[in-house]
Amino acid sequence: MGTRFAEPGGHAWGADGMEMHQVRYFLALCEERNFTRAAKRCGVSQPSLTNAIKRLEAELGGSLFHRDRVNTRMSDLGILVQSELVQIDRSATEAKHKAAKFPAARSVKSSKPRAMEAFMRAHHVITVVAVLVIGLGAKQFFFPPVKAEADIPVASMDVLQMTIDHPNRNNHPVQKMHDMTFVYSDSD
Q1: In the chain, how many domains are there?
Q2: Would you say residue 74 lies in a domain?
Q3: Both ends of the chain: CA-CA distance in Å?
Q4: Is 51 buried (19+), middle (13-18) or exposed (0-12) by CB count in 10 A?
Q5: Are both 103 and 160 inside the same structural domain?
Q6: Which of 5, 62, 98, 122 qualifies as a cystine partner to 77, CB 3.0-4.6 A?
Q7: Is the pTM of this model over 0.90?
Q8: Contacting residues for 6 by C-beta, under 8 A, at least 6 apart
């Protein structure tokens, strides 16, 4: 069922509202000037189009078309409301385009994929953290740090991370590691 524009206090599902498909059928009939061709263009049967136009005429309170066996032409009321119905159709189309581009609109159709995605991400994060913690603990257990027994001098290095615009950056040697810049001091 199409979108209805009901009067205040009226029911959107009753016979007291204008439906979007009625607007589209009206506009197709305005261009085609033939019920059969307009119905074909809209992908509906000719009786369905005729009934929708009759309901729209009842809603608007008068004939929108003069019909005879040979000709279908717009009535004065049809001419009067045509520009308004064109605007309604354009606005509805624009609203659909905007809604399709809006990320939250896609989640309204089905919230299950979004909920499942959030669950999977949380589960993934928990799994990665668990693997890291267990891995580091296992490394410490199986490979404890061994103190060197020989008199090998131990070198230490203080590594500082500075922003690129730090004023003392050029006073220290710089080393690139994994896309990060480190400034280090080699003084003991």
Answers
A1: 2
A2: yes
A3: 81
A4: middle
A5: no
A6: 62
A7: no
A8: 12, 14, 16, 17
Q: How far apart are CA 111 and CA 113, in angstroms?
A: 6
Domain of 174 in residue numbering reads as 156-188
Quick check: is 122 in a domain? Answer: no
Residues 20 and 100 in one domain: yes
| Placement of tokens 């717009």 in the chain | 74
Residue 11 corresponds to which tokens in the numbers above?
A: 């029911």
Judge whether 176 lies within some domain: yes
Structure tokens at 111: 């919230």
3-class DSSP state for residue 185?
A: strand
Contacts of 41 (CB under 8 A, 6+ apart): 28, 32
Residue 121 lies in a domain: no
Q: Residue 22 to residues 50, 97, 125, 129: CA-CA distances in angstroms?
A: 10, 20, 51, 57
Q: Is 38 exposed, middle or buried (0-12, 13-18, 19+ CB in 10 A)?
A: buried
In whole angstroms, how far apart are CA 65 and each of 26, 27, 30, 50, 149? 9, 12, 9, 11, 104
pLDDT, tens digit, 9 for 90 and up, residues 42-79: 999 999 999 999 999 999 999 999 988 888 999 999 99
Q: 34: which 2 tokens?
A: 């033939």
